[in-house]
Amino acid sequence: MKPILTWNYFKDHSHRGFILGIVGAIVVVLLSSCAKENPSKSSTSSSPNTELGGQVSPNLDSNLTTDGDDFWRQHPGASVPFYPESLAIMNEYVATHPLNAPSNFRVYFRFHEEAPGQWGGEVWIGYRDNGHIYSGRFTTQNPTGKTRNEVSYRDWYKGLPNAAFNQWFTYQGQRVFHGFFQDPYGAIVVVFDGGIDLNDGQPLSMLTGSIWFKNFKRTSASQYMGNEGEQCWFLLPPSPYECGTFKNAEGRVVTNSALYPNPRDGYKKLGTFGGVSYRRAFGK
Q1: Contacts of 51 (CB under 8 A, 6+ apart)
Q2: What is the b/e burial string over 56-86, where b = at least 16 CB atoms within 10 angstroms of the residue's CB?
Q3: Which residues, at least 6 apart from 233, have a Cβ–Cβ distance to it below 8 Å?
Q4: What is the pTM for the complete model shown?
């Protein structure tokens, strides 16, 4: 995971006037050029409405909320504190630069039902470090616009929606959810495994859970940007871009066969969260 900072300080200090505006523009242009030489895994805007494109670079986000702890509070999804497993794990997730003194970790969820019982959408992971806000966006949306799988080994997944494996199901007597989300440089699995049960036949409210991550073995997943639009959870080893887990004996993803990603598939636990409003996250 390679988040790039979101430029909030220029906006926060706009009263410094015209000269600072010119300096800010020059910095954005220079860092944008650097990003193209060393692409980041993260979307650089902290606006959850930004479309993920084929090239990422630092970006001034006029929608970012910089005052207060919740920099996504003006957006319609669910934003809550996030608790990393360790600084070492966060450094592995970030990958491109060492963290200094990161703080105010948060995660943002906004989902929609792509097909009956199958939830697509986006997940943002953000934090503050060195006076800036860094964020990474993971989604079921493919940049090519493809919403279904079109190429599949043995036709295992051909025709399935991108969010086919992102489901609520009953596991060991408990109502749970997990789902895959991707950016060009890796994948995460979001797990909801606890919360408040209102006993109304609906999923849990005020959800708790965890996020697991897997970085790709190469810089960028070309097939994610290619004409086929194939998501990484539909790929199989030895592809360096595959991110499937919950697999059966023949290697096929069976999403309700397990709750947590298998470490043998390359996943590590990034951290935990709580207090996620089901209504805000799932638009219900």
Answers
A1: none
A2: bbbbbbeebbeeeebbbeebebbbbebebee
A3: 165, 180, 182, 187, 242, 243, 244, 253
A4: 0.79
Structure tokens at 163: 């969010």
Tell me if residue 10 falls in helix, strand or coil: helix
Pairing of strands 205-215, 186-196: antiparallel
d(CA 243, CA 211): 14
Question: What is the SS3 assignment for 105-163?
Answer: EEEEEEEEEEECCEEEEEEEEEEEECCEEEEEEEECCCCCCCCECCCCHHHCCCCCECC
Alpha carbons 282 and 123: distance in angstroms, whole number: 12
| C-alpha to C-alpha distance for 84 and 94, rounded to whole angstroms | 12
- Measure Cα distances from 194 to 119, 173, 225, 260, 275 in Å: 18, 12, 35, 13, 10
Q: What is the pLDDT along the chain (284 residues), one digit of tens a residue?
A: 556 554 333 233 333 333 334 444 443 333 333 322 233 344 344 444 433 333 232 222 334 555 568 989 889 999 999 999 999 999 999 887 789 999 999 999 999 999 999 999 999 999 999 888 888 999 999 888 889 998 888 899 999 999 999 999 999 999 999 999 998 889 999 999 998 776 666 667 799 999 999 998 876 666 564 456 789 999 998 888 899 999 999 999 999 999 999 999 999 999 999 999 999 999 97
DSSP designation for 245: -
